[in-house]
Design brief:
alpha/beta; 39% helix; 23% strand; globular; binds iron/sulfur cluster
């Protein structure tokens, strides 16, 4: 049994909030720069180059890549041989978010009530997904999520008879309906299977996959490639202004499901696909 003092998580989370909002991971950055070099449309290439310049400026001046610094979404894997000691882990994570968004001068984008809409002024509460896993480590991933793209996300309760074609059509439909609103080029996170809420969680988790990686399931990896190809033939392009770079990846995570259903969630993410992982 390994003891981890939850107070020690606060500063780790604070730094993760700041880092995630200022620097894209190298794999994400490389993907964007490669797409910029390969875009055929003149206007599309201009937009892509502006996105690259924006990344450079954010890193140089230590400022957020985008004004929408998102809701702080976390995936936390707790090793079953870890004993968390001290304050409640959820409170520790929220305290880290509070400090990170304040000290990093990151926009506070959270309201305490969906209808009354009073800003909490510290970007809390975070959205935290916990998993118990083997081992004695604590793995924390932050994925700050902007809502331009979040608002264009969809859940489709497909029927088994919809099959592979139904899955492909639904993903493409979500991206086409999002058009320029999701700030393309986008990353498309897909959760296929499970139930209503698990499909949505899988879709969000799919966005944290390393750029360039495909599903380990050959039939799913094939669908990822085919759907990406279809989306990029749509001509929506960077910023919705035309070009072949509409999506940078389609990542599909799957789970077992019920004989009567085939839930499919599409979580749209703009090119600012931020995430940082720390293992304690
Ligand atoms: S969708 Fe992404 S790029 Fe667009 S405003 Fe939100 S965080 Fe920024």
């Amino acid at each position: 049994m390994r003891i981890i003092k939850t107070e020690s998580i606060i500063d780790v989370v604070k730094d993760m909030c700041i880092k995630a909002n200022i620097h894209l991971s190298q794999d994400m950055e490389d993907t964007i720069r490669k797409a910029a070099a390969e875009e055929d449309s003149k206007l599309g290439r201009q937009i892509m180059n502006q996105l690259c310049d924006n990344l450079d400026i954010a890193a140089r001046d230590e400022i957020a890549i985008c004004q929408d610094t998102g809701m702080a979404v976390f995936f936390v894997n707790i090793g079953q041989d870890v004993h968390l000691e001290g304050m409640n882990i959820t409170d520790a994570i929220n305290e880290g978010v509070r400090r990170g968004y304040k000290e990093g001068y990151l926009r506070k984008s959270v309201v305490s009530d969906p209808l009354l809409r009073v800003n909490t002024n510290d970007n809390t509460p975070a959205i935290i997904h916990y998993d118990i896993v083997p081992g004695d480590k604590l793995e924390i991933t932050i994925a700050p999520k902007g809502f331009g793209s979040e608002n264009m996300s969809r859940v489709f309760m497909l029927k088994p008879a919809d099959g592979e074609e139904g899955v492909k059509e639904a993903i493409v439909k979500a991206v086409m309906e999002a058009g320029p609103n999701a700030c393309p080029p986008v990353f498309v996170g897909v959760g296929l299977g499970g139930d209503f809420e698990l499909s949505a969680e899988l879709a969000k988790k799919a966005l944290t996959r390393k750029a360039g990686e495909h599903s380990k399931l050959p039939h799913i990896a094939r669908i990822e490639e085919e759907v990406l190809d279809t989306i990029n033939k749509s001509g929506i392009g960077p910023g919705g202004l035309g070009g072949k770079t509409t999506a940078l990846a389609v990542n599909i995570e799957t789970y077992a499901t019920h004989i009567a259903g085939m839930p499919l969630a599409v979580n749209m993410c703009c090119h600012v696909n931020r995430h940082v992982t720390v293992v304690i």
